[in-house]
Amino acid sequence: MLRAVCLGLAVALGFSASAAAQEVTLKIHQFLPAQASIPADFIKPWADKVTKESDGRIAFELYPSMQLGGKPPALIDQARDGVVDIIWTLSGYTPGRFPKTEAFELPFLPVDGETTSRAFYDFYEKHLQDEYKDFKVITVHVHSPGLLHLKGKGVHKLEDMQGLKLRGSTRMVTKLLETLGSVPVGMPVPVVPEALSRGVLDGAALPWEVTGPLKIAELVDSHTTFAGDHALYTATCVFLMNKAAYEALPDDLKKVIDDNSGREVAAWAGRVMDAADAPGRKAAEAAGNEIVVLDEAETERWKTKAKDVETSWIADMTQRGFDGKALVEDAKSLVEKYASKQ
């Protein structure tokens, strides 16, 4: 009888320890395939780190490629409404919802992903907390430098943009492409390969890092980038948690999430995207595609034309009651602050 009691106690204690070891399981939903750089080299390692630092009390289920349903623009509401616990997405997939965030999507503002992500996180802390008040913000960041990927003759000068049907990721990117003379087509990145192969698009604005998993090099003939340190564009990315799911955690587990949030996490995500640029470019070179680097004089022509986008955005923000000029100046100042430390 004593042995039976001891055995029963041991089993009960075992179940109790198991339950304590995993107090919560959080679902992370995002639109990229699992092998892409952000899911493979940022989201999964981040989740593993949180699990380890919580002694296994926080576990995660990872759902890439919109496996839990909906299209990429639905992710923001899925996080806000508690359909999932955490999402990663582009803020610009819901145009008009995060207006001040767009300051970091203005043309020729960004440098590399890590540097610009640090600056963007500072900008969030200073100007954007009201835009994301419905979420627990794990971090915000940007992708690595955006460039143009073209079918056919490609783009060697500004005039070559005329009439091209080009994919843009966000409102600001499509506005830029239109200003530069092309016919912009807004669409989430997962559908770009099919649109290229079917002739719906003549090309796309994308960072190198995402071209590898999507096999873009096999669908285009050339890639156009620019002289100088500043890229044509970037897009803003957000890693957000449902507020109620965060607030339901005990204080010690909230601290684990907090310790894995913020500027250094933004830098980590940006660094991952920067590192993935090299394989994307290598795939383009292996495919025999032309890599076009516009010289300084030609790049200046593009910057002059693209200035209209910034001017228009400042006017739009001013009409909404924001100091658009001050937001742009602060965004540029923060980028230069971190760029000067490189």
Can you put this structure into words, describing what you see?
This protein is an alpha/beta fold. Helix content is 46%, strand content 18%. It has 13 helices and eleven strands. The protein has helices at 2-21, 37-53, 75-81, 113-128, 171-179, 192-197, 208-214, 243-247, 251-259, 263-275, 277-286, 296-319, 324-339, and strands at 24-30, 58-63, 86-90, 135-142, 146-150, 165-168, 183-186, 203-207, 222-226, 236-242, 290-294. It has a six-stranded mixed sheet with strand order 7-6-8-5-9-11, sandwiched between helices. A five-stranded mixed sheet has the order 2-1-3-10-4. α4 runs antiparallel to α13 (324-339). The longest helix is centred in the C-terminal third of the chain and has 24 residues, at 296-319.
Average predicted local confidence, pLDDT: 94
Label the structural class: alpha/beta
Spans of 5+ residues with little confidence (pLDDT < 50)? Answer: 1-21
Strand share of the residues? Answer: 15-25%
Major sheet, described briefly? Answer: 6 strands, mixed
**Broad shape:** globular
- Helical coverage, percent range: 40-55%
C-alpha termini separation: 71 Å
Number of strands: 11
How many DSSP H or I helices? 13
- What sequence of helices (H) and strands (E) makes up the elements? HEHEHEHEEEHEHEHEEHHHHEHH
Using only C-alpha atoms, the radius of gyration works out to 22 Å
As laid out across the biggest beta sheet, the strand order is 7-6-8-5-9-11
